[in-house]
TrEMBL record:
Listed Gene3D superfamilies: Glycosidases (3.20.20.80)
GO CC terms of this entry: extracellular region
Known EC number: 3.2.1.8
Official protein name in the record: Beta-xylanase
Native organism: Daedalea quercina L-15889
Gene Ontology MF terms in the entry: endo-1,4-beta-xylanase activity
Family the UniProt entry places it in: Belongs to the glycosyl hydrolase 10 (cellulase F) family.
Main location: secreted
Residue stretches making up the GH10 domain: 21-317
Catalytically driven reaction(s): Endohydrolysis of (1->4)-beta-D-xylosidic linkages in xylans
Pfam families per UniProt: Glyco_hydro_10
InterPro entries hit by this protein: GH, GH10, GH10_dom
Length: 318
């Protein structure tokens, strides 16, 4: 029997992979590593936290690549596709970014130094970078974070241009949630992409996070994905998990299997979809219970490392 990454490859996709969080004790958990380090199951890695600003540039201009290098070295050693995550995001910022009273020149310099620092560190090793993460509100307007408030939307092109110069071979992505389906936010993202293209700003892909709820997976994934393909971009499912209200039931596990099938099948139906990444593969380390109280069991493997019906949903879809 083929594993999920082998199935993805057989289906013409570039990878099936997972986020891993080495700020948690995953890498020292032998069961976690023995399952994760099988190329037949996983062919791609995204750091869930290690390359975020607060970890990788904790002081102005002072980079700490310890955790990021652990991820990048694993990718090299095991021949896993590496997705860099992320460049510029409103969250998990060090306090020197959020508490400085910036002027535009100062913050533009800090953004360039940051993006150049991380992208050049891993140049040649990263398949794709989420250069800009979650720039939009659900109503389609720009998120009013320190970057937008100080620089307007120009921080987006600045980050993308800086990333291109630092690693000309990395695919440059914008990554967001609630853009997976037809709606206001997805339309706004397509408008943003169209504007960047018109301005000759480098943009190669869009990340569809895909943090869904069991029984509530959107019905317009394929139609929406086709609209991105029509823009001439690739895209990826970058952070898939499908949470349920606890306690789980046999019915909710079956629905979750169907829901995983629906998402992976939507990727299968659109050739511009290059791969699928789950936002960790075992419930043992999932971010869901702490971020969405009352919800959990969002991953294809349970907290005891047993495969759930969701696993079969993915396997059947590829
Ligand atoms: C999450 C991590 O998994 C958590 O450990 C952290 O506390 C918060 O961030 N969208 C993203 C990811 O782009 O970076 C987020 O990851 C989940 C939502």
């Amino acid at each position: 029997v083929l594993g999920l990454n082998e199935l993805a490859h057989a289906a013409g996709k570039n990878y099936f992979g997972s986020a891993v969080d080495n700020t948690l004790p995953e890498f020292t958990d032998p069961t976690y590593m023995s399952i994760y380090l099988n190329w037949d199951q996983f062919g791609q890695i995204t750091p869930a936290n290690a390359m975020k600003w607060m970890y990788i540039e904790p002081e102005p201009g002072v980079f700490n690549f310890t955790l990021g290098n652990q991820i990048a070295d694993l990718a090299s050693d095991y021949d896993y596709v590496l997705r860099g995550h992320n460049g510029v995001w409103y969250s998990e910022l060090p306090s020197w970014v959020t508490s400085t009273d910036w002027n535009a020149t100062g913050l533009a310099y800090a953004v360039q130094r940051h993006v150049n620092g991380i992208v050049s560190q891993y140049a040649g090793r990263v398949y794709a970078w989420d250069v800009v993460n979650e720039p939009l509100n659900d109503n389609g307007t720009y998120r009013e974070d320190v970057f937008y408030d100080t620089l307007g939307a120009s921080y987006i092109s600045l980050a993308l241009e800086t990333a291109r110069a630092a690693d000309p071979n990395a695919k440059l992505y914008i990554n967001d949630y609630n853009i997976e389906y037809v709606g206001t936010k997805s339309t706004a993202m397509q408008d943003l992409i169209t504007q960047l293209q018109a301005d000759d700003v480098p943009i190669d892909g869009v990340g569809m996070e895909s943090h869904f709820i069991v029984g509530e997976v959107p019905t317009t994934l394929v139609e929406n994905f086709q609209a991105y393909e029509a823009l001439g971009l690739e895209f990826a499912i970058t952070e898939l998990d499908i949470r349920m209200e606890l306690p789980a039931t046999e019915e909710s596990y079956e629905q979750q299997k169907q829901d995983y099938y629906t998402v992976v099948n939507a990727c299968m139906q659109v050739s511009a979809c290059v791969g699928v990444t789950v936002w960790d593969w075992t419930d043992k380390y999932s971010w869901i219970p702490s971020s969405f109280p009352g919800y959990g069991d969002a991953c294809p493997w349970d907290a005891d490392y047993q495969r759930k019906p969701a696993y079969d949903g993915i396997a059947i879809a590829f």
